[in-house]
Amino acid sequence: MSDIPDYKGAVEEIEGIVEEIENEAVDVDALTEKVKRATVLIKFCKERLRKTDEEIRKILEEFEKEES
Q1: Looking at residue 23, what DSSP letter applies?
Q2: CA distances from 21 to 7, 11, 25, 41, 62 (A)
Q3: Is residue 26 part of a domain?
């Protein structure tokens, strides 16, 4: 997944793919590749969100311990 720069870039690319598909701007021959790429990007985003959620939970737990 090294060709995915960051979360924002992945989301923008997904939006572009969706727009192309909705506007029927994707050639049938390229459709499979677009869908595969979107799947990779979605998996990347889901994993990034999961990791961010875990990190935030840990930070909040540490904060709550310090407050006690």
Answers
A1: T
A2: 21, 15, 6, 16, 45
A3: yes
Number of domains in the chain: 1
Helix axes 7-22, 28-67, angle to 10 degrees: 140
Report the Cα 13 to chain-centroid distance in Å: 9
* pLDDT tens for each residue of 21-31: 999 988 888 99
2, part of any domain: no
> E strand or H helix at 47, and its extent?
helix 28-67
Q: Is the pLDDT of residue 41 over 70?
A: yes
Domain limits for position 24: 7-67
